Amino acid sequence: MAPPREEMPVDVLFVGAGPASLAGAYHLLNLIEKHNERAAAGEGKEIPPLEIAVLEKAKAVGLHTLSGAVMDPRGLAELMPDFVEQGFPAECQVSSEDVLFLTEKGHHKFPITPPPLQNHGNWIVSLAKVVRWLAEKVEEKGAFVATELGGREILYDGDRVSGVRCSDKGIDKEGNPKGNFQPGPDLTARITVFGEGVRGSLTKELVKKHGLDLGKEPQVYATGVKETWKLAPGKFPKGHVVHTMGWPLDAKTYGGSWAYGGEEGVLSLGFVTGLDYRHPETSPHNMLQRFKEHPLVAGWLEGAEILSYGAKAVPVGGWWSRPRPWAPGALILGDSGANLNAMRLKGIHLAIKTGMLAAETIYEGLVKEDLGDAQLATFESKIDASWVKDELWKVRNFHQAMAGGLYSGMLRTGFQVAFGGADPFGGSRVAAHAGHTQMKKLSELSGSERHRPKAHTDNVKIFDRLTNVFQSGTMHEEDQPVHLLVADTDICRTKCATEYGNPCQYFCPAAVYEMHDGDLHINASNCVHCKTCDIMDPYQIIT
After folding, report:
1. 74: number of CA atoms within 13 Å, CB side?
2. Which of 125, 128, 126, 141 lies closest to 79, judged by CA?
3. CATH number for domain 91-126+218-315, candidates 3.90.930.50, 3.30.9.90, 3.10.20.30, 3.30.930.10
4. What is the DSSP string of 36-84?
5. What pTM does this model have?
6. Distance, CA of 52 to CA of 42 (rounded, Å)
7. pLDDT in tens, 297-340
């Protein structure tokens, strides 16, 4: 007989241990602590001790976080003014930077760094280290950070979110209980805060159930594929940042690269590919490998040793594509709420700030003893009144401009910067299109553009996907349920093969999807949890 499902009641449940949730939990505990100090001095009523939990599906906080970022410290400085003194685990501050336009064999340096790409004074960080540090601070404040607990479904009381049911453990790949079977607990909460990252499965469910995207533009994404390298001495300066555009992308595909020089000769090297590309053989992984074949980048990597690999999707649709950030019993933060500045390619500071605003919303509700819809709706108004909107409003049409191509996009973006985000051709709000709808069918490609150039793999500097997956440290039990589901595999062997040539073979940066004799084979244990397949499948049948 299976053991009973445990119910674990808490007051506030944060789903996902990323910067948004951790900042929210930390700020909420701070607000309550200061409130109770005032109450002890006779100012108001004390808030009784609360159970605040942060749910993380990985075995440890930070394992599912793509490291290597240049972080704007604005949000963290508001959350924790003495963050440096508290041991903030930064690599270094940015001291120099270049923006380059690449051709196949050469490059052209921009005479000045465009203001949105200026990073002087920002911090080069390992985001995995940052969230681990934040988790420690949250636990010191009294919250509970629960790892190895992935949310499987949302719990409801009527239409109101009442918590999350966690995934069962001890299930084989056929879905049958094994000897160590343990039902996932039900974590019930007065308020549930979703900060599970981009395209989170629970957030998707919540948005759909409550129509939180009604009246919004479709969300658009990009996938960043990243490697970290230990460089030979003198190859790339510490504190130096390089961003590139141009080659190996064609002029119609959105994207570009980054290179960040950290401590002890460690280089974060990555490539972002817009997930609204036209060619069905476009591969974000291949873009990074081809980028490394460029003479400039190859020079950086002479004598280098790879340390790690990873991939992650980011929301780049902008202000008009953000879902409503609240529902009955729930708030949505960070990348889950599409709070990312696509022009700057920065979202950590916005995630932290949305976490803080969520904490303030919850705190006010606790003081008033009211966490009903009217109170939760103030979260949206708080965002609107904050610098989150100020920043995102100025770039609200950026990706829509770039979706038309690099050269026209640069021209339109220049106008947008001059006119506070308004577009010269679309006005204040430019329509967006879901990325998967932009993929061309094979019949629409001319013979000369039928196949995409591929990198020359040597598995020393230029890697195939399986080698990179090994370098990612990804670990899944082979005998566990497949977490990637294809609703109708007949479409894969028939319609998709004919119309698009099975693009899942290309867009996945971890070689999860392979076609064998016309049949789809899913290597679920390779998955690096980037969400690209869920986003870019032309039939939207992968979940």
Report:
1. 14
2. 141
3. 3.30.9.90
4. HHHHHTTSSPPPPP--EEEE--SSSTTTTS---EEE-THHHHHH-TTTT
5. 0.96
6. 25
7. 999 999 999 999 999 999 999 999 999 999 999 999 999 999 99
